[in-house]
Please model this.
Amino acid sequence: MKPRTDGRDLVAFLGALSLFLSTIEYLVPKPIPFLRVGIANLPLLIGLGVLSPAQLFLLAFLKVAGQGLVNGTLVSYVFLFSAAGTFTAAGIMTLAHRAARGRMSLVGVSVLGALGGNIAQVLLARVLIFGEGAWLIAAPFLAVGTVASALLGVFAERFSAKSRWLSSVRGKAGR
Model:
């Protein structure tokens, strides 16, 4: 049987990894109810260099849907926040990664994506739940998101540079 080279296996693997990381993150106690550090976004960062934009957005969809199923939030406002943040971050990260063409590290790409995703979530919180009070949570939310995304970017950058697995995936994608 001939192996597929269209990326479906890679999207499935990264989707499963994202779901695993989301589950791990869900188990960690949070000081503020919907404050998450976003480790489930790590597969999105890693996928930037090896997936097409369509595959990356499929991965983002798998991440959001999987999180909603595992966490029991699929039919709640939490799902909307997750979707808004993830799709905004994925879009910004894709644009930044492609526009920079290697001149921006995954740290910068990750921070830009997190800021965009967090701003989308704060705006959604303002419209749906908190009204003007949403601006009170914006600063700490953005600060935590910036620090966490920078750390995730550092990890993704190191992983991308040293991983033999990812190097072989890039080699197969280039064929």
Remarks:
- The chain is about 75% helix and 0% strand.
- Residues 8-174 form a domain with the Arp2/3 complex 21 kDa subunit ARPC3 fold (CATH 1.10.1760.20).
